[in-house]
Amino acid sequence: MNPDSAKIVEVGARDGLQNERVPLSVKQKVEFINLLSKTGLTSIEAGSFVSPKWVPQMASSSEVLATINRQDKTTYSALTPNIKGLEQAIAAKADEVAIFTGASETFVRKNINCTIEESIERFIPLISMAKEHNLKVRGYVSCVMGCPYEGAISFKQVIDTTQRLIDIGCYEVSLGDTIGVGTAHKVKELITETTQQIDVNKLAVHFHDTYGQALANIYASLELGIRTIDASVAGLGGCPYAKGASGNVATEDVIYMLHGLGLNTGVDLDKLIDAGRYICEELNRPNGSKVALARPLKN
Ligand SMILES: CC(C)(COP(=O)([O-])OP(=O)([O-])OC[C@H]1O[C@@H](n2cnc3c(N)ncnc32)[C@H](O)[C@@H]1OP(=O)([O-])[O-])[C@@H](O)C(=O)NCCC(=O)NCCSC(=O)C[C@@](C)(O)CC(=O)[O-]
Fold it and tell me: How far is the CA of 15 from the centre of ligand 1 (A)?
């Protein structure tokens, strides 16, 4: 990747909406994704093929993916915890899928009802089937900075799990600070240790802003060569299986910082702010982006 550019993986329509109390219609979700698509974002997580009993908010992902206006340069991806999810993602013509596990046994049990090892075993046939359909597979490791149930998590557990996902065929692994407890120094330590064995270009970061540390953590990650950042417009988000986890870092704020650092993202900040304002109005919730709040409303 060009060292002067950075890539955003926009997770607002998935991570952002999966925990919202206000149920959105397919039409509202489609309008939201269509607005995001007009911003220049090249990677949009558009839904999740998980059990509707576990995460009802994502139940309409098939219809959403079938209805959005896709941009040629944008990849529309979806989470798939198992083969059943992958089959639905293929039928819905997702461009890419993401599998997800974690560095904490308790979190993984609560989130996908298996052990870390069982999750990896489950992903092996999923990845080979995805590859037969020419779908790239991204991986997530949750709880890299701490777990809502177990507390501290060892770097070894994070790195071993990340390595396993790469070994079974993920082209990239996103390191998730699910509950937003990380601080810049610890993030630097983790990334320094991880990149001793894993190519930095295969890593992304995914920070929740629970303790207001996300931008500092992203800055620390950039200093160590990370160039793929997950973010959620308007700071939407939170994992249903991580109580107290607030939203993801707001994409608008990340873009503002990246542009200020001279990194090209290809994203139009004003259009992104419009997408964030739209979804906040639909959800009747405050906008979690400081940049969006600072920019005057257009007449
Ligand atoms: C993985 C399972 C399915 C295991 O759940 P289980 O209960 O162990 O699964 P099962 O295979 O026994 O199936 C139970 C029922 O679910 C159905 N089912 C089974 N699979 C699917 C599927 N793919 N799509 C639709 N339905 C499915 C299946 O057909 C069956 O239906 P029933 O016979 O009872 O009517 C469940 O635990 C689950 O769906 N978990 C998802 C949890 C989730 O989505 N969490 C949020 C995303 S992760 C996250 O937010 C963190 C991240 C990525 O953002 C990074 C970070 O911040 O750290």
Answer: 14
